[in-house]
## 1
Amino acid sequence: MRHVIALDVGGTGMKAALVGSAGTLLHRARRATGRERGPDAVVAGVRDFAAALRAHGAEHLGEPAAAAGVVVPGIVDEARGTAVYAANLGWRDVPLRELIAADLGVPVALGHDVRTGGLAEGRLGAGRDADRFLFVALGTGIAGAIGLDGRVEAGAHGFAGEIGHVVVRPGGTPCPCGQRGCLERYASAAAVGEAWAVACGNPEADAAHCAKAVTAGDPNAVRVWQDAVDALADGLVTALTLLDPHMLVIGGGLAESGETLFTPLRDAVRRRLTFQKPPRIVPAALGDTAGCLGAGLLAWDLLETTDATEVTP
């Protein structure tokens, strides 16, 4: 059965799949990233995982994978196939596409994890009926993907969609990016968890605990949550003013709170609109499979391009 390798490399774990031509997940697997052993060990682990997936396909699906898609966090130069920088993984300027292609002997596509997740949501998930959408992932940080007619815009330098570093509170909390008042310092799952831990006096508390306390009517939790929602709405309205999408697709850990997030967020965005057309604001549909599915789409797109080139006179 013809298939591709899809590998989603995260800060702590790797999710992988063998993906059929219709986006079918034929085999799924997970491994630890092993970042505690250093960046060289992480790269070796990614390569070893890809090789194991190739072997599994050859044994169980009758042939090895025809291509591979690999997605990673941080700054990614997709055109050169280089993982430029990832703070959580410690690597810099890793020619990952070249390394894995040499290991597997097949074409390899390298992509950015959130943009690729947005690609999957656009083709297979919540954004599949929208020609223009913005996908925003609310996790440890905040990142976005600009969806246009079945593809995702990377930008001139690979930074398109970095909504987490839109300044929403000028002069506010310092951000590791060097700015102050960035959106992700107020509305990411990590930021909500930190604010709630201080408010409730429990250093182990996180954003999920805060969401439960909001549902229970805790006034401190409601205050922390509303501060995050207001910051998120400010960032989203800036983005939709620039991009004019039909839909905002919200994913990541914070979105798992469901209407505890979406009801006040829709209200907060609506209150801020003047001339702008209100977009639909919907939860992401693919959950933690989005990265793998997106990596598979990258691989299939690459394979189709390669096949077309081979038959062109």
## 2
Amino acid sequence: MEERLVIPFAPILVESTRSIGYLFEAAVADIVDNSISAGATEVRIGFMSKDPRWLCIEDNGCGMAADEIENAMRYGSQDPHNTRDKNDLGRFGLGLKMASLSQCRKLTVMSKKDGKTVAASWDLDYIKLKKSWALKVYSKEEMDDLPGFIYLNSLEHGTVVLWQDFDRLEDASANAQKSFDEKIELTRKHLSLVFHRFLADKNPQKRLALYFNGDPVLPMDPFLTRHPSTQPLSEQILRINNEEVRVKPYVLPYPSKLNANDIENMGGKDELRLKQGFYIYRNKRLIVWGTWFRLIRQNELGKLARVRVDIPNSLDSMWEIDIKKSTATLPDCIKKNLAAVVKNAVGRSERVYKYRGRNVQTDDLVHAWNPVDFRGTFQYQINRNLPLLKMLENHLDEDGLALFDNFLKMLEDTFPYADVYYRLASNEANVTEKALETDEARQIALQMVRQAQDSGGDIPQLLSVMDKMDFFVKYPDVLKDLREEYCHD
């Protein structure tokens, strides 16, 4: 057997790996992972959106010596099958390079450890020129003018990752500065969610401080754990290969109980339904969220249900965590257990929504529409015993009654369920139960009273019935005025 050493051609390989599919915000998050794994308690993201634009991720982690920084710049610097520290957020030894170079053509890493500062750079144009894996190594004098060096020089130890030459952004946008600023804002929100448990750690010594050009980033808690109306359900512990998977469901409060900050934490009302589902964390770092993994379908009544799942990094391969840390697959061995958790959480969410509407089967109001259960299929039917409807029927002959009854059936059969559902789901703030002006409601009530008076009816009794009609409950002053005018004891 003949053996030959085949070395990948550097210019082609590095250009090819740029297209792995990193989003800008996911690429930045990957670098922050490295900072946290290095023990950083502070991460500062600095940037310049004007040309020449740049972005640097600075941290006060343990830093790297010359040999360590060279290894960190090597493609495939870590075996994904190796046993790692339980708090390590990496896996493949590719994130630093592939995440960075997916967004820019020049990646520079500066690091300080034991009083020595070192720096190295992958410059794709330089690699293309040299046609080899030519890593640039800088002297201390060459670092002086690089963004992030002043911060690094002020620390005892730390690392700065610098991105320059955003070729893809510039090629894809007519206004590169605007596009860059938009990506920065999206990244700020993304990091506030992905690292929210680090940002809000109860232990000040472990809490992460994150800044964007000096502005602190606040945690975005998707479970609203501090809200008094959030319902935390019992935590369950599942075991896979002698490892613990912790599962804790939450049921969020109904939107009307939330203030503006709460709604922003949820991503806005429009995204509330889309963000229901599992929230998968690996070592407290959010990986995947807003999916039920096809255990159930997303639905309006279940949109308040969210299930936190904590997995250790030793189960990465079983959950099929990808290089970008943006996808995962639910292992078959725990699907049955999680399905039961989901059923309970969604059931709680549904009860929150059902509580919001009146239960027409138990309250003492007279409703214009009654929900009727046909063996699990619900339909809304017009209440045929409404006083106003009865008065109308008294004015109709036999043919008119038949025609009127057919008209009511047609209304019931064409009730716009889908349209109401869509409008409630898309923007609940524009849906209101009160549509008539008070004068219009007064005119309706007055006609009913006069009709009853003309036919010799009991006016106080009629007003007593009207007090319990869901329509007039919204107009209490109307009945009060009529009672003063027609009821003289």
